[in-house]
Amino acid sequence: MNKFGCLLLLAICRGEVAIAQRIQDFRLTSNEIAATAFSNDKTGSSGVEGIRTKVLAGDPSKSGFYSVVLFVPPNTSIQPHSHAGDRVAAVISGHWYIGYGSRFSTESLKELPPGSVYSEPARRNHFAKTGNVAVIVEISGYGPTDTVYVNPADDPAAQQKLTGAK
């Protein structure tokens, strides 16, 4: 195949990938979000007990754009972990405390009130906690995503396998 043919094939393939990654139209009011079911799949969330997830768009376990809402109970701590791809998040309600690094440090936490935004760069370790009030956070990124804990013993999925809990 000549150079032009290779370039044409590459352009066509790139076009198909771009089409496959387009998001669908969606508009959801807060009442419509509240009416949607919680997801049993914890892909891209911390997996910590009590945190509930609603998928707004896409599928975090598959290639392409996704958006999820996390409902995090009061007095919840999430140990240092990272995700496969870049993510951007917005605090919808409550006060979310987030820090970056491989060790949970209260001194490193920054309080983010409703309306705040933050990033979770790919493979950048971060940790979080809530105070006495539940928090709702919307997170968007490109999948597939995962959650990798710095200390495997902190991974709730690993703990569930050891104890046989569901």
Task: Characterize the structure shown.
The chain has one domain (27-163): Jelly Rolls. Residues 3-19 have low confidence and may be disordered. It is globular and about 40 Å long. The protein has helices at residues 3-20, 30-35, 156-163, and strands at 52-57, 64-72, 77-82, 87-93, 96-100, 110-112, 117-120, 126-130, 135-143, 148-149. β1 (52-57) and β2 (64-72) form a beta hairpin. 19% of the residues lie in helices and 34% in strands. It is of the alpha+beta class and 166 residues long. A five-stranded antiparallel β-sheet has the order 1-2-9-4-7, with no helix packed on it.
Write the layout of secondary structure elements.
Layout: H1 3-20, H2 30-35, E1 52-57, E2 64-72, E3 77-82, E4 87-93, E5 96-100, E6 110-112, E7 117-120, E8 126-130, E9 135-143, E10 148-149, H3 156-163
Antiparallel strand pairs: 1-2, 2-9, 3-8, 3-10, 4-7, 4-9, 5-6, 5-8
